[in-house]
Amino acid sequence: MTEPNLEKELALVFEGKKQLKDVLDLGAGRLELLTELAYLYFEEGRYDEARVLFEGLMALDMGNAYHCRALGAVNQRLGQLDAAVRYYQRALKLNDQEPETWANLGEVLLIQGNADQGLAHLERADQLFRSQQPQAPQRRRVQAILRTYRRVNQ
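Request: output the structure for the sequence above.
Response:
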């Protein structure tokens, strides 16, 4: 791609009319491999490396709710709760039908002392899990948190 064409293509990215992954011609297969690698780093506790990869992936595909949620989880594990909240909220703006995002955000809000919002998010997560993944282990975690909170705060 010539420099003037690249400049035009990048202008479209900055205007939100095109994704950087399309300008750089990164196919879905390469993005999936990078996503898998970032997830493996997360699972291994290599949070800084996972964060770098997920931030790069977000730059390439700004409309990907999974990458936002993953960055929320990375920041949550690193104790960066305000950043985690921002990423989870962004993920919900992109896709408000993922129960994992509602659950994770609800937990962080509870940790931050925002009980009303946290519980509302956990309730929403439970509703979505019930309709989409009734046997999901995270649903049982959400239900346990809700039961415990209600029992303690009766």
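The chain has two domains: 18-95, 97-154.
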